[in-house]
Amino acid sequence: MERIAMSQKERDKLEWLKRAKDKTIGQRKAAEKMRVSERWVRKLLQRMKKEGDGVVVHGLRGRASNRRISRSTRERAMEFLKQPEWHDFGPTFASEQLAKRHQVKVGKETLRGWMIEAGLWQPGGRKIEQVHVWRPRRSAFGELVQWDTCEHDWVEGRGPVRYLVRLIDDATSWSWGRFVERDATPFNMAVLWEWVEKNGRMVDVYTDRDSMFAVPPRPGENREQQREADRLTQLGRALRELGIGSILAQSPQGKGRVERSFFTDQDRLVKLLRMAKVSTMEAANAFLEQEYWPEWNARFARPIQDFPNQHRPLTPHLDLAAILCHMEPRRIGNDYTFSFAGKRYQIARQQAQAGMRHQQLRVELRLNGELKARYQGCYLDIAECGAPAIVPEPVERKLVRKDHNAGGRSSWMAGFFDRPSPPLWKAIGE
């Protein structure tokens, strides 16, 4: 006796067909229960006489699909996934990279099954993390940009690439960033410079409370006193001069968009740099600019054309080189010189003015290493002073001994007239 595997739905259909065959119910009633037409019920009853109970089972059951992936494609995909460079690829990212690099197009769920069967992927339930209330996205491109730095071994020990400075738009997730030598003010300024040149000046930036962005309060100082003091870091000053607001996050979750994006980078970017055999800072930044950011913005960011753009253009009086720099005020001395970084600098003679002494000027150490000095809106010609002249050591002189018992009378004429002199006639004759 042949065994036929049926689902519960198919068994229910068979029950209604048998009742219609035995005429305990009509064909119309059976069609309603089976949710098919009366014509189909009549056709099934005719086929039931020849095929038996298997008439309710689909005829393609057990047969291979015409759209199945060939065995050669599966073997080729698994051959790549078993290579050492692919050892930590997940199904989703592996599916994308197989299609991009080797033209092997396999769905991520199909690939997931193959990887589980081959022992290349261990399925597991997702952990329930602490839930934070999500802040809604801003509504315009450039309204708020989150800014942070991630320290990670991006090239897996092949070179000194550890710091990624990243800016991500809050509304669209459009991103830009650079690998830098260290997480310091000049390198962060350089990344901001590139963003502003590409898009314009954003309305606000959202950062953490690192010493680059905020001056810590002094002991015993409250928020009101700190606000009145208005102490700024170099980046804070540059943002104010550019007309960009600064919002300081109270917790890492406050700037969660850029924090979560770093987790994606540590998964995808590390593997892509490995596949491209990148090992230097220059090559890593070239890869970011030419491949990673265009792919990220196309895949994960929302189209910026669909959002109003609140970036403001650069005006002629905004000189990025003069703003994004290390600036310190200095006072001009009587000799028309000023000190900076332990050195003395002389203002050119033709630009020296009488009212310039004891006045302040703005000294700018720019990102390219140039030193500029600006006085009342005009840049001055300056030159480093030479080595100071050698001052001879003072000669120790013997003090003149004074007679304190002379009673105030001078004794320098004493004995003058007692000295012998020539005769008068001889002195006249001479």
Report on the architecture of this protein:
There is one protein chain. Helices cover 35% and strands 14% of the residues. The protein is built from 13 helices and twelve strands. The protein has helices spanning 8-21, 27-34, 38-51, 71-81, 91-102, 108-118, 185-199, 223-229, 234-242, 256-275, 281-299, 320-323, 424-429, and strands at residues 144-151, 163-169, 175-180, 204-207, 245-248, 325-331, 337-340, 343-347, 360-366, 371-375, 378-379, 382-384. The chain has a five-stranded mixed sheet, with helices on both faces. A four-stranded antiparallel sheet has the order 6-9-10-11. The termini are far apart.
Give the tags.
430 residues; alpha+beta; four-stranded antiparallel beta sheet; 13 helices; 14% strand; elongated
Note the total helix count.
Answer: 13
Order of helices and strands: HHHHHHEEEHEHHEHHHEEEEEEEH
Structural class: alpha+beta
- What is the residue-averaged pLDDT? 86
Spatial gap, N to C terminus: 172 Å
Rounded radius of gyration (Å): 43 Å
What is the overall shape?
A: elongated
User: Could you name the ranges where pLDDT drops below 50 across 5 or more consecutive residues?
Assistant: none
Across the major sheet, the strand order is: 3-2-1-4-5
| Oligomer kind | single chain
In terms of DSSP E residues, the strand content is: 5-15%
Largest sheet: 5 strands, mixed
What level of helicity do the residues show?
25-40%
The overall strand count is: 12
